[in-house]
Amino acid sequence: MARTKAFLPFIAVLLALSGCSAFFSFNAFSSLDKASVPNPSRYQGPGGLANLQSDLASKAIVNALKGDLTTVNIILSNLDASYNVKTGPLTTPDQQTAAILYSDLALKSTSGDILVNNVVATIMTQAPGNLQSILSSIVPADVAADFAKFDDMMNELLVANSVYTNLGNSTPLPVPGMNMGDVAQKAAVAYLMQKVFDRVHLVDAGTEIAEMFALVNNQANNIANLNTIPADPLNPLSAVPWLKNIFDAAGAPYPA
Fold first, then answer.
1. Angle at CA 156, nearest 5°, toward 151 and 164?
2. How many domains, in total, are found in the chain?
3. 255 located within any domain
4. The pTM is what?
């Protein structure tokens, strides 16, 4: 299989981010105790965003939400209805904060945050290989073993990419009270997965996620010999203005 050269710019970018421990703060959960699933109303109205930010720092609450994606979807829907994070524009600090928290919840509730960690860990320990070896090394084991989980994770990564795009196109950045290094890292990986999805779409429109799942599990698929992700107007990374804006806000180096 052809090597996915489009991953190479991300290696330099994410390695630069990974050098700062602050950018891994999303790994630090404040609670290890069991928690019940919060009522979605907790995240609405005054104080709602602060409550969500606090709860997303709790491993117990995140784990509870992972087991109740119906509630997660209600919370996500409420956030979008109140702040238009998926359509934008994001013109207020609350909208920007809501966009970050929306993406955070979408990723953490579907193990997308673990995939982000795995991408960084993988690029720090090995050179990029073919598409199958890369996906197999970054997709969490429990997600790779369950198509429903894989489907949920991929769909939320794709949605998160659109939300991060809106965030990167908004001003001013950085967003007060938000860890922009964390945001930059997650935005880069969400964008990367969008580009992989787009490439698979050219081969198998309509069954992209199923094909990627089969590839991860070494099952019969139509993308085993997928060519390198082709160059397009969004490559190299320096041609992605919204992503560069997020990296600039994080004070992180971005490819020239």
1. 150
2. 1
3. no
4. 0.86
